[in-house]
């Protein structure tokens, strides 16, 4: 999963990136209808390449304004700073579609730690939750994820395998509840978000789309 893609740097550089749009009932994190900047990156997001060259574009897919991430033995992410009070907006909602999962990917082993789609929620320089679409690990699994020694990252397997490939799926997670369950304490405000893909450990390929990411009230 290459969670060490300078995730620490994401938290350090929070003030340099765009803030999310705030509405009465939600905090919008990603609305890709705004298109891409001159470099082809989604407006308001920063590209981080860990391994190889990123293949990322803002597209319309089945009428959905989305960002498409393609990995061929590569690892990269889009990230941005946010400031979300989970006591007010505890539920994270997003849409995603995966068309290719890394062959043999499994976050439970460092040698196969590849996922077609990863959605990171960072709370501080040391704690984060990542919601993943894994190739092998069972759906619903919650476990420690690989991380630098100074960090604690928890993985939640939201989808697994190939059964739902090619479908736009809307997800909803109560991040406030997930954090309390995983860390046993009250969460800080969310300070950073990341959309990621990688397949370099297995030396295979992956493709995913993300759209309409937001935090909402209950």
Please outline what is shown here.
The protein is mainly beta.
Give the low-pLDDT segments: 11-19
Round the mean pLDDT to the nearest integer and report it.
90
The span between the termini is 30 Å
How would you describe the shape? Answer: globular
- Please name the CATH topology: Jelly Rolls
User: SSE order, as H and E?
Assistant: HEEEEEEEEEEEEHEE
Number of separate helices: 2
Radius of gyration: 16 Å
- How much of the polypeptide forms β-strand, as a percent range? over 45%
Kindly report the name of the CATH homologous superfamily: Galactose-binding domain-like
CATH architecture: Sandwich
Estimate percent helicity.
under 10%
Number of domains: 1
Which CATH top level class fits? Mainly Beta
The count of strands amounts to 14
Could you walk me through the main structural features you see in this protein, from its secondary elements to its overall organization?
With 218 residues, the chain is mainly beta. It has a single domain (7-216), classed as Jelly Rolls. It has 2 helices and 14 strands, in the order αββββββββββββαββ. The chain has helices at residues 7-12, 175-183; strands spanning 21-22, 26-30, 46-51, 55-61, 64-72, 75-84, 91-100, 115-122, 127-134, 142-145, 152-160, 169-174, 190-198, 205-216. The strands form 2 sheets. Strands 1, 2, 4, 5, 7, 12 and 14 form a 7-stranded antiparallel β-sheet that branches. The protein has a 7-stranded mixed β-sheet with strand order 3-6-13-8-9-11-10, with no helix packed on it. 45% of the residues are buried. The model is unreliable at 11-19 (pLDDT under 50).
């Amino acid at each position: 999963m290459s969670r060490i893609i300078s995730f620490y740097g994401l938290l350090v550089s929070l003030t340099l990136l765009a803030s999310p749009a705030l509405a009465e009932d939600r905090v919008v994190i990603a609305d890709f209808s705004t298109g891409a900047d001159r470099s082809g990156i989604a407006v308001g997001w920063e590209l981080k390449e860990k391994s190889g060259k990123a293949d990322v574009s803002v597209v319309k897919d089945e009428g959905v304004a989305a960002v498409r991430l393609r990995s061929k033995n590569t690892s990269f992410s889009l990230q941005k700073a946010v400031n979300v009070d989970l006591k007010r907006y505890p539920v994270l909602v997003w849409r995603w579609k995966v068309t290719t999962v890394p062959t043999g990917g499994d976050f439970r082993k460092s040698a196969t730690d590849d996922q077609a789609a990863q959605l990171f929620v960072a709370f501080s320089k040391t704690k984060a939750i990542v919601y993943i679409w894994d190739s092998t690990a069972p759906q619903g699994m919650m476990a420690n994820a690989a991380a630098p020694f100074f960090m604690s990252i928890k993985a939640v397997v939201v989808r697994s395998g190939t059964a739902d490939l090619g479908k736009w799926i809307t997800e909803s997670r109560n991040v406030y509840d997930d954090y309390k369950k995983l860390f046993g304490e009250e969460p800080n405000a969310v300070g950073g978000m990341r959309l990621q893909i990688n397949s370099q450990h297995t030396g295979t390929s992956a493709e995913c789309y993300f759209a309409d990411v937001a935090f909402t009230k209950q």
